[in-house]
């Protein structure tokens, strides 16, 4: 037997041994851990009978489609803009994004005749650019609304802007682009200043009915002492006269309670007013009680940043443990002179992206699943769940305990090597 075959036998024995332990571990979704949620338990009861908002309205009653004034101020500080350009909604930024795109598609952003669906004739479809790998739930919104997705390469500075600009100049049916500009889900990239500047000018190529869906979900979710700065899309867009093209979204889902946080959106005043009117058809106002308790609890950006430091204390050891396993298990190892994989070391956010050798991500996920370790399905970070190179695996270490991560990562590292050896043998190497 060759050395590779010996090694594979040894790994298989270890793998079978792990299987017999019937593990049940999960590294799939970017959920905060219970200890993180506990940091915000003071939200419960904080109003203590005082429901008066800054402008004297009663948070318990109907109304306030744009959000209560103090929550708009808070969200404006978070999104680095003016309160008049902000709407604060319910608990989910994903819901805001879905509703915004549905509104544009069906209703029109500048009157009914501007509805995106009117522009697609016959068998044509409206299209979105999807920097990939990206966030699977953005892609689900496109699928649900029959919007065709065009993947765009991500590099370390952000999406490939030459490609973005070229596609936009060729195809007027492209009406939007999804972005997670800071600590991107899943690859941790922070868009470079030059990239943000080019984004702010896209409206001049794509026209008034085009929208940049700038999902700044991880704006304050740092894992380093000197967080990188993201350039301000709204400010730059204002400068270039393209503010209507920029839709900036955020939420406190990974700051307070993931399922009961506060979500917000910013753009031009006209856009925000149009959107609030659209939402007004389906609701007589958002949960203002939750908005009020969020502002009383977080207070301001200083309060929020202090809380994020507490999150970091819980999250950082988990990220470090994943990275330790990857480094110790895989760094420097090669099969056929090729590294077994590469991975990101993000400065913030919720994910580590692992790349296998081409074609092996699906097999690694399958081997892990059979050994009791659930990973996000291979391909799910790509439009239509098709990773063309079949290399991306998203690791989400926030929810499991350190002990669980330790066990899961042992299995992961083993499965990466096993899958790579298998492939090398079947290729006759
Ligand atoms: N955007 C991104 C990029 C995310 O990763 C997530 C959560 N995984 C969300 C939005 C969901 O946010 P919310 O809870 O506010 O709907």
TrEMBL record:
Keywords: Aminotransferase, Transferase. SUPFAM superfamilies: PLP-dependent transferases (SSF53383). It comes from the Bacteria. It holds the Pfam family Asp_aminotransf. InterPro entries: AspAT_Ic, PyrdxlP-dep_Trfase, PyrdxlP-dep_Trfase_major, PyrdxlP-dep_Trfase_small. One of its GO terms (molecular function) is L-aspartate:2-oxoglutarate aminotransferase activity. This is Aminotransferase.
